[in-house]
Amino acid sequence: MSVVNSARDVHVDEIVDAEPHSWLNMKEVPAWFISLGVHLLILLVLASITRITLLDSEHAIISSIEELDQDSFDIDPTIQDVVGSSGDSEILAPSMSAAPQTAREQQEAMQNQLESEIETPEPIFNDELTQPAKEELMASVEVKGETDRPEGGVAGAIDRLTLEIAAAAKEKKLLVVWLFDVSPSVSKRRNEIADRFENVYKQLGILEAAENENSLKTAVAAFGATTQFVTKDPVSDIKEVVSQIRSIKEDTTGDENVFAAVGQVSKRWLSYKKKGRRNMMVIVVTDEAGTDAVANLEETILFTKRNGIKCYVVGNASPFGRREEMTTFKVDGYDVPAIAETGPETVMPERIKLPFWGQNGYKARRLTSGYGPYALTRLCAETNGIFFITEDSNGVKFDPADMRAYHPDYIAIRDYQKKLESNAAKAALVKTAAATQFSKRTLPTPTLEFPANTDNVLRQAITAAQKPVSELDYGLEELQTMLAMGIQDRKKIAEPRWRANYDLALGRVLATRVRAHGYNTVLAEMKSNPKSFKTKGNNAWRLVPSKDVRSSPSVRKMSKQATELLNGIIDEHPGTPWSFLAAMELNQPLGWEWKEMKLNLDASGNRVQGPRSPRFEEEQRKKREILKKRGIDTSKPLKI
Q1: Distance (Å, rounded) from C-alpha 232 to C-alpha 279?
Q2: Where is the VWFA domain (predicted)?
C-alpha cells in the first residue's frame, strides 16, 4: 500500500501570470492573513485524504526489506570436505577433490530436514503444459576429479562412463580414446567391456540421431612396455572397435607404462580436438598402478590439462600403504601365486611392513586403502576425470565417512618431496617405510614351536631360533633410530593421516622390539633349565603371548610407550585402518609363556609329514609342465 500526496495528482491547465507587486504594506495585512488561513485550511484537508494508487511498472518502488538470518536460509549446493573430528570444512583444489565425496550424506540429511519443515504449496500448473524434450534434461555438468565406487563393478563403471560420454557429446563433437592394459590379468575386464560396447553406443546413438554420423568417434590403443595403436585412426563403426579390442595381444613382461601411453595417444590424436573442434577424453582400463609415474606422470598431466583432455580410469583400489600385494592368477585353470603392483595410494608408501607374531596377519595384508593408486587417481583429478574403483580387496572395509579426513596428498611429486624436507617426522616415516618394503633384506619371523622329545633336541632348536631373532632386533633397532630422528617434529604434524602413520609405525616397532627381547629371555631360561611336561605323551613346546613381560626395566618402559602410542591411535582415529592395526597389535600381549603340546616327530626332532597321494603328485607334475610351456617359473611368484 502506498500513501500518495494528492497534490502529486493535481494538473494545472492554465497558469495566469500575476502582475508584479512590491512587498505588502500594513494596510493589506488583514486581507492577506485571511487568505493565507483559508488556503492553509484547504491544504490540510487535502493532505488528510489517502487512497490506494496502482503505480505504473516504470515507476520506482521503494520499500524496506526485512533482514533475514543468512545462516538459516543459505543452502550451499556444493559438497564440502569435512576435515577431522571438528567438522570444519574447506574447499579443496581439483587434485584434493579426488577423495570420494562421502560428505553428501550430511548434506542430504540437512536437505531432507529443510524439506520437511517447508510447506509445499499446491501446484498451479496443469498436465497440459509441454514437457521438456528428453535431450534437454541431459544438461552438461562439470565433473570435478573424484574417486567413485559404482555398483556392479566393471558394468557399473561403463554405465557411468556412458553418462560422461553423453554429456561431453552433447556439448560438441567428441573423440573417445580407450586405452587398455595388455596384462593377462586384465583380459577378463577387456572382454566385459567389449561385450557391453555395442549396447553402450546404442544408448549414445539415441542422443546423436539428429547429428552427423561422425559426431562421435572412437579410437583404441593398448599399453604394456610399449604403446600399441590398435586403430590406426579414430573410427565411427563400433563393430570394428569391438573386434579390435578382442584382438589385443597379452604381454607378460610386467611393465605398464601407462602414463607414457596416455601422453602418446593424446598427442597422436590431438588434431581431432584442435582442428575438428571436438571434446576429447581418454579412458584407461587397468588393474594396476603403472610403472612409469616418476618418469612420465607430471609431463602427461601438464599436456592433458593444457589441452583440456579429460582422463578416466577403470581400475582397482590400492592396498593400504603398500606398493605390491600378493594374489593368485589363473593360468590354464591353475592358480599361480602372483605379485601385482597396485599401490600405494600415496606418492611413497607411508606404512611400515612388519609381521604380526603369534597371529594370522592375513587381515592386515588384505587391508584396502579405499582409494585408487596415487598416480592414476591424481591424473584423473587434475584433468577433472574420475577414477572408478571396480574391484577391491576382500579384506576389512572402512566407512568412507570415517576416512574423509584421511585422504592422501594428491600433489606433485616435487611438492611431496618438499613436504618431507619441511618436517623431519614425515621424512623419517617415509624412509622407514621404504626400508621395510623395498630393501632386499627381510626381517625374519621367529619360530614359535620347539621339538623337545629330548633335552638336547630342545636346546638345539632353541640355539637355531636365537640367531635370527638377534638379527631381527638389530633391524628393529635401526628402524627405531630412523623414526626417532623425526620425533621432535611429530607435534608439528597437522594432518591426521600423517599423525596416524607416524604413531602406528613407532608403536609397532617398539611393540615388536619388546616381544623380541622377551622372546630371547624365555628362550635363554628354557635352554639353561628345560621344563618338564605335565601331560604324558607331550613332546614339544610352543610360545604363546602373555601379559607378563619378563625382561629388563628398560624393556618394560618400552612396553609402556608402545601401549600408550597404540591406544592413542585407537582413541584418535576410530574406524580407520590405523586403529584396526593398532588393535591387532594390542590384542596380542607383549610377553611370552610356554605351553606344552604334542607333535609327530622323528628321533631327531624333525616333523614327520604325512604321505602325499600319487594323484596329488601327478597333478603337481602336470601343472609344472603346463606352466613351463607358458614360460612361467613356479618357484617364484608371477609378476602381473
Answers
A1: 19
A2: 175-315
Distance CA 212, CA 203 (A): 16
Residue 115 three-state SS: helix
Name all domains of the chain by residue range, CATH numbers in brackets: 142-317+371-391 (3.40.50.410), 423-615 (no CATH)
Q: How far is residue 334's CA from residue 386's CA, in Å, rounded to a whole number?
A: 35
Q: Which three cell numbers stand for residue 544?
A: 604363546
Q: What is the DSSP string of 401-415?
A: HHHGGG----S-HHH
pLDDT at 195 over 80: yes
Q: What are 572's three cell numbers?
A: 584418535
Q: What is the pLDDT of residue 33?
A: 55
- Judged by average pLDDT, the poorest of 142-146, 167-171, 493-497, 609-613 is 142-146
Element (H, E) at 60: none
331 phi and psi angles, rounded to 5 deg? -125, 115
Contacts of 161 (CB under 8 A, 6+ apart): 200, 283, 312, 314, 388
Residues 45-65 pLDDT 10s: 565 554 444 334 333 333 333
Q: How does the average pLDDT of the chain come out, rounded?
A: 80
Strands 449-451 and 174-181, bridge-based pairing: unpaired
Residues 480, 561: Cα–Cα separation, whole Å: 13
pLDDT for 123 beyond 50: no
Report long-range pairs for 15-24 (Cβ below 8 Å, ≥24 apart). Answer: none
Going from the C-alpha of 222 to that of each of 118, 452, 463, the distances in angstroms are 54, 59, 55
**161: closest CA among 371, 306, 297, 311?**
311
Residue 292 phi/psi, 5° resolution? Answer: -125, 30
What's the first-to-final CA gap in the chain, in angstroms?
80
